[in-house]
Specification:
This protein is mostly helical. The protein has helices spanning 24-75, 79-97, 103-107.
Length: 110
């Protein structure tokens, strides 16, 4: 780019910039190719980091879920406990009713 003093006949000064400008679409295509390469490297990096991170984080997450479940179980009792107790009571009543009968009596058709 020539300096401003070399062209006294022009009323404006030259705008500073690149001497060999690149076309916009050519630069975009070049950057798009570079972006795909960088994306592939990033995906590889995430995959390689994800496996060790999941091995390190999974036990902590499982422990947190178990502790949270135990804390909730202290506040809200499990409904299955009531069903279990009810089933045990029903089984105990049936055993007491049939305690005096012999097995052969129950097998006889009435």
């Amino acid at each position: 780019m020539p300096p401003a003093t070399d062209a006294p006949d022009r009323p404006w000064r030259p705008v500073p910039g690149p001497t060999d400008p690149e076309h916009f679409f050519a630069a975009q295509a070049r950057n798009r190719r570079a972006t795909w390469r960088l994306s592939a490297l990033c995906i590889l990096g995430v995959a390689l980091m994800g496996i060790p991170m999941s091995v390190a984080i999974s036990p902590i997450v499982y422990a947190a879920v178990i502790v949270a479940n135990d804390l909730v179980n202290l506040l809200v009792p499990d409904r299955r406990d009531g069903h279990r107790r009810g089933g045990e009571a029903a089984a105990g009543d049936a055993a007491r009713r049939h305690r005096g009968q012999r097995r052969s009596d129950r097998l006889v058709a009435r």
